[in-house]
Amino acid sequence: MSENKDLQVAEPATSVEGVKFVYDFTEGNKDLKDLLGGKGANLAEMTNLGLPVPPGFTITTEACKVYLDSGEEPAALRDEVSAHLDALERRMGKKLGQADDPLLVSVRSGAKFSMPGMMDTVLNIGLSDKSVQGLAVQAGDDRFAWDSYRRLIQMFGKTVLGVDGELFEDALEAAKTAKKVTVDTELEAADLKKLVTRFKRIVKTEAGRDFPQDPREQMDLAVKAVFDSWNGDRAKLYRRQERIPHDLGTAVNVCSMVFGNLGPDSGTGVAFTRDPASGHQGVYGDYLQNAQGEDVVAGIRNTVPLAELEKIDKKSYDQLLQIMETLENHYKDLCDIEFTIERGQLWMLQTRVGKRTAGAAFRIATQLVDQGLIDETEALQRVTGAQLAQLMFPRFDEDAKVEKVGRGIAASPGAAVGKAVFDSYTAVKWSRSGEKVILVRRETNPDDLDGMIAAEGILTSRGGKTSHAAVVARGMGKTCVCGAEELEVDTKRRRMTVPGGHVVEEGDVISIDGSSGKVYLGEVPVVPSPVVEYFEGRMHAGADDADELVEAVHRIMAFADRKRRLRVRANADNAEDALRARRFGAQGIGLCRTEHMFLGDRRELVERLILADTETEREESLKQLLPLQKKDFVELFEAMDGLPVTIRLLDPPLHEFLPDITELSVRVALAEARKDSNENDLRLLQAVHRLHEQNPMLGLRGVRLGLVIPGLFTMQVRAIAEAAAERKNAKGDPRAEIMIPLVGTVQELEIVRDEADEVIAEVEAATGVALKLSIGTMIELPRAALTAGQIAEAAEFFSFGTNDLTQTVWGFSRDDVEASFFTAYLEKGIFGVSPFETIDKDGVGSLVAAAAKAGRETRPDLKLGVCGEHGGDPESVHFFHEVGLDYVSCSPFRIPVARLEAGRAATQSQGSDHR
C-alpha cells in the first residue's frame, strides 16, 4: 500500500520570522528531541539509518507552544504543512483522500519524554464515504477498507470531537452479538459498513456535526487535538507523576499509513531488544495478525509472543531481528520498537529507548558495559536511586502456604497486596482513606491513570508486556500482572471469577507477584529483598549462589562509590541503627537526635528537670541523666568507631516531654471532684500552663532551651566528652562532632560554645585524654542562612536542617499542610513535587547555596553537610553536589540510594537522557 519513492522534496515554507515549524523525516535526527519530540527525532534517525520507515513529516514542539500560549496555530504553519504534504503526495504518487487511490496518514503525538497512551493519536486520516470505495478497490479487500473507516470514525470521534468512547464500543459489541462472533476480525464487510453508518450517527448526535468528509479538515483538526491533548487531565497527571516539565509541548507526526489489518499476511507488533521486565537478552514482544497498532497496546485482543512471528512470516521476522540489533547497537541501549507488516513488507513505525523495570535497568547497564557499548560512567546514568529503592522492597515468601488462583504475564515486578477494586474512581477513593488496593481490569486505558497511581498494583485479564497497563506500570515502578486469561473480570458486577468458580468480590484481598505473574487469594507474607540482604551483608556478590541482580547492583554501586565526591552519612540515634547504617555503607553519622534518647523510661527525669523549682532539684535531675547519656554515646562511638558522629544537642519543644494539657486537666478535675487531688499533678498542670505555646515549633526549643535551662547542654557535652575519653582509653577512635540546633545569631552559638569548651577542658584534665571535639551548628532558620558568614566565625561545621528550613522559608507547618492543601497545590501545578520531598532549589536551595558560600568565605575549611529528609532524595542529592557540600545524611535504608545518586551526580553527562 505504501511506497518510499526517491522524489525531490519541495523546500518547505517558513514563517516571516524565519522559524521553521515542520521537518521532513529526512531532515531530523535523534538529537533533536526538544524540537521534534522523541518519536519524531527517532523516526528521522531510523530514516537516516536507511531503515524502512513510511515517509512523513513532524510538526515541532515550538508550533505546539505557540498554539497553547495563544490559542491559535502559528500563521505560517498551514503553508508549511501544505508544502510538506505536497512533497509527501508526490513521493507516494497519490493524493490525501483522493477517491480512486487515497493516501492515508496517521497523526500521532510525540513529546520529548515518552508518555505512553497519555496523548492522542488518529489513524487512517483521509478516508471518507468516497475514498473508502477507492481503498477497497485498490486493496482488493472490501472488509479491510470498511474496517479502516470504522476505526477512523471511532478514533476521530473520541479524540477530536470528544464523543464518549463507550458509545462506539457498545455499538461494536452489539454488532458482534448480532453476528454471534466474539472478536471484531470475524465481522464481514457488510457488518462493518453498517457499523460505519451507526458510528456516523453517533458522531452526529453527540458532536452536533457530521463526520468531516474533507481529508485536509480531518488532518488539521487531528493536529489541533494532539496539541490540546498535551494539557489533557491524564497527560498532566502523568507528567506530575514522572516529573516531566509542563512547558515542553508535544510534536505531531504525520506519517503515511501502512496497514497491518490487510489479512493474515499483515499484522502489527511491539518488540524489545531485551526483556524490559528482567533485562535478559532474547526475543521479546507481542505480535497480532490482521490488526493495527492500537490493537496491541490497548490489550483488547490477546497477542502471540514475538517468537511466533518466525512461523508466521520468517522473512519479516529475520529482517526485524536484524533491525533490532542495528538499533540497539546504534542507541547503545534497550530499544522499544513498534512495527507493522503490510502483506509481507516490514515497516518501522517507532523506536525509543525503552522503559524498563528497576531490575532490568541494573542488569542491562552492566551487560552493556561487558559488551563494550558503554563505559562505567555512562552505566551510572542508566540507573537511578528511585529504581534502587524499588529493588529494596520486600518480595513474597515462596515457602508460605498460599492459594494461587491464576497466572498472567509478569509485566512489572514487585509484591503487591491489597483489596480488589474494579475501577479507577474506587481505587483513588479507597486509597485516600488509607486502604491498599489492587486495580483489576480487563485491560487498562489512559483514563485509568489516576487509579493506577493510587493502587499498590495492577492486574488485567487481557494484554501482554506491551499493553498499556504493562508499559505505564513499568514506567511508574508499579507491580503489574497482565493477560491473566483464566481470570474472568466483570467490571460491571465488580467481581472476578477465578478457576474453580470462586468469586473475588470488590474488597476481597488479593496478592499479585509482578516477578512471576502469579495471582493469589488473600494476603501473602513478604520476605526481605535479596538486594537488602546484600547491603546487610547476608548475601555476597561473586559467590556461587549470588543472585544475578545482586551482582549487577554490586557492580553499579562500586562504580558509584569510586566516582562520587559526596560522602554519605546516616541519621541514627542508637547503636543498633548505627550498625545497620554502617552495613549499608554509611561513612559516619550526620545526625544523632538526642531527644529520642530522653523518651521512654527517662521521661520522668526530664519532667523533674523542667519542673525543678530550685538549683538543687535541677542539678539532681541532671546528675541522674548524665550517666545514661554517657552510656548512649559510648555505644554509639563503639558502633561507628573511626567515623564521624554528629550529635545534635536537645532540640524538641518542651511540650513533647510533658503530659497532654487536656488529659492532665481532666485528671486534676476528676481528682478534685473526688477530693483526693494529687499535689504533683496540680504542680505539673501549672507548669504545663506556664510553658504552653501557641506555636511550639517556633518557641522554646533548640539553643533557646539550652540557654534557658542552665546545665542542660553542659550535661550533654560532658556526657559526650566523657564517652569519647572512655572510648579512647579502650583504644578506640571516637570522632564526635557537637551540633547546636536552631541557632539564629552568632551570639547564641558563642555562649553555648564557651560553656562547652570549659566542660571539654575539665574532662580532658580529669581523664588525661586529649579530645578533638569539633563544635558546629545546624542551619535551619533563614536568618542563620543569611548571616552564615558571621556564624562561621564560631562554627567548625554547618549541617543544613532542610526540614525546618523548608518550613520557615515557606511559612508551612509540615504536620498540617501536607494533609490540608498540598494535594490541591500538586494538582494545580503550583508544586511539581512537595518541597519537603525534593528541595526547593529556587527558595530553600538558594539559601543553602548562599550560606555555604558565605560560611566558607569566613572559614575555608568549614565542613558542610545536610541532614534533613532531602539528604536521601535523589534529585536533592544532585543539588547538594552542585553547591559543594561535603556530605549528605539520611535514614539507614536510604543510604544506598544516596550513594548511588552521589556517584551519578559526579558523573552527570550534559545532554544525556535515559528516562
From TrEMBL:
<keyword id="KW-0547">Nucleotide-binding</keyword>
<keyword id="KW-0479">Metal-binding</keyword>
<feature type="domain" description="PEP-utilising enzyme C-terminal">
    <location>
        <begin position="551"/>
        <end position="903"/>
    </location>
</feature>
<keyword id="KW-0067">ATP-binding</keyword>
<feature type="binding site">
    <location>
        <position position="801"/>
    </location>
    <ligand>
        <name>substrate</name>
    </ligand>
</feature>
<feature type="binding site">
    <location>
        <position position="802"/>
    </location>
    <ligand>
        <name>substrate</name>
    </ligand>
</feature>
<feature type="active site" description="Proton donor">
    <location>
        <position position="867"/>
    </location>
</feature>
<dbReference type="InterPro" id="IPR018274">
    <property type="entry name" value="PEP_util_AS"/>
</dbReference>
<dbReference type="GO" id="GO:0050242">
    <property type="term" value="F:pyruvate, phosphate dikinase activity"/>
</dbReference>
<dbReference type="InterPro" id="IPR015813">
    <property type="entry name" value="Pyrv/PenolPyrv_kinase-like_dom"/>
</dbReference>
<dbReference type="GO" id="GO:0046872">
    <property type="term" value="F:metal ion binding"/>
</dbReference>
<protein>
    <recommendedName>
        <fullName>Pyruvate, phosphate dikinase</fullName>
        <ecNumber>2.7.9.1</ecNumber>
    </recommendedName>
</protein>
<feature type="binding site">
    <location>
        <position position="780"/>
    </location>
    <ligand>
        <name>Mg(2+)</name>
    </ligand>
</feature>
<dbReference type="GO" id="GO:0016301">
    <property type="term" value="F:kinase activity"/>
</dbReference>
<comment type="similarity">
    <text>Belongs to the PEP-utilizing enzyme family.</text>
</comment>
<feature type="binding site">
    <location>
        <position position="803"/>
    </location>
    <ligand>
        <name>substrate</name>
    </ligand>
</feature>
<dbReference type="Pfam" id="PF01326">
    <property type="entry name" value="PPDK_N"/>
</dbReference>
<dbReference type="InterPro" id="IPR010121">
    <property type="entry name" value="Pyruvate_phosphate_dikinase"/>
</dbReference>
<feature type="binding site">
    <location>
        <position position="593"/>
    </location>
    <ligand>
        <name>substrate</name>
    </ligand>
</feature>
<keyword id="KW-0418">Kinase</keyword>
<keyword id="KW-0670">Pyruvate</keyword>
<feature type="domain" description="PEP-utilising enzyme mobile">
    <location>
        <begin position="435"/>
        <end position="517"/>
    </location>
</feature>
<dbReference type="InterPro" id="IPR040442">
    <property type="entry name" value="Pyrv_kinase-like_dom_sf"/>
</dbReference>
<dbReference type="InterPro" id="IPR002192">
    <property type="entry name" value="PPDK_AMP/ATP-bd"/>
</dbReference>
<feature type="domain" description="Pyruvate phosphate dikinase AMP/ATP-binding">
    <location>
        <begin position="75"/>
        <end position="302"/>
    </location>
</feature>
<keyword id="KW-0808">Transferase</keyword>
<feature type="binding site">
    <location>
        <position position="804"/>
    </location>
    <ligand>
        <name>Mg(2+)</name>
    </ligand>
</feature>
<dbReference type="InterPro" id="IPR000121">
    <property type="entry name" value="PEP_util_C"/>
</dbReference>
<feature type="active site" description="Tele-phosphohistidine intermediate">
    <location>
        <position position="468"/>
    </location>
</feature>
<keyword id="KW-0460">Magnesium</keyword>
<feature type="domain" description="Pyruvate phosphate dikinase AMP/ATP-binding">
    <location>
        <begin position="309"/>
        <end position="359"/>
    </location>
</feature>
<feature type="binding site">
    <location>
        <position position="804"/>
    </location>
    <ligand>
        <name>substrate</name>
    </ligand>
</feature>
<dbReference type="Pfam" id="PF00391">
    <property type="entry name" value="PEP-utilizers"/>
</dbReference>
<dbReference type="InterPro" id="IPR013815">
    <property type="entry name" value="ATP_grasp_subdomain_1"/>
</dbReference>
<feature type="binding site">
    <location>
        <position position="648"/>
    </location>
    <ligand>
        <name>substrate</name>
    </ligand>
</feature>
<dbReference type="GO" id="GO:0005524">
    <property type="term" value="F:ATP binding"/>
</dbReference>
<feature type="binding site">
    <location>
        <position position="780"/>
    </location>
    <ligand>
        <name>substrate</name>
    </ligand>
</feature>
<dbReference type="InterPro" id="IPR008279">
    <property type="entry name" value="PEP-util_enz_mobile_dom"/>
</dbReference>
<dbReference type="InterPro" id="IPR036637">
    <property type="entry name" value="Phosphohistidine_dom_sf"/>
</dbReference>
<dbReference type="Pfam" id="PF02896">
    <property type="entry name" value="PEP-utilizers_C"/>
</dbReference>
